[in-house]
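=== RUN LOG ===
request id: a7f3
mode: sequence -> structure
chains: 1
length: 190
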Amino acid sequence: MLALAGCAGRPVAAGVPAAVPAGVAPREVTEADVPYNLTDVLFCREMILHDRQALTLAGLVEGRSEDAFVGGLADRIKAGEASRVAALAERLRTWDFSVPDAANPPMHDMPGMLTDAQLVLLRGKRGADFDKLWLTTLARHTGYGMLLAEKARDDGKDRTTKDIAGRLAVAQRAEVNEMATRLARLRGGG
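=== RESULT ===
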């Protein structure tokens, strides 16, 4: 089951005899024996990649933005995302899965993730044009993170991971709403 996720490590699959002391009859490991499920593993791996890209986006703000809300949101991202990456990485290590390499991240095609071309476009903007594009981009990015967190909260098995996902889903929903309100103001809607 977990080997299909493309995650390195030593997952325990159904039907595989568990290691047992000599003289004891082996038994098959069942899903109930494993404290996590595929949803937990995928959430941790994808959210690590997602949060790292949010940190990249936050790093683009200084020197480009002229909006205090954008600067404050970037500061909040810098303050919170790195600690969540560490917590999710620890979950993966606990289960004996590899953590995506920050220097050489795996190729991915997750919704909400920016392409290199989109990042170049953002880097080329300044002032109000940057603020609008950055908020639009981040709102889309954060919206996907919220959906990812809601899925883990609802379908995960590991209590710690479900708790992280539940808090994240609430926080990201609030952030998306804040960004939508700010974007409406920047576009002259109020």
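=== NOTES ===
The first helix runs from residue 38 to 59.
The helical segments are 38-59, 68-94, 116-123, 127-155, 159-186.
=== END ===
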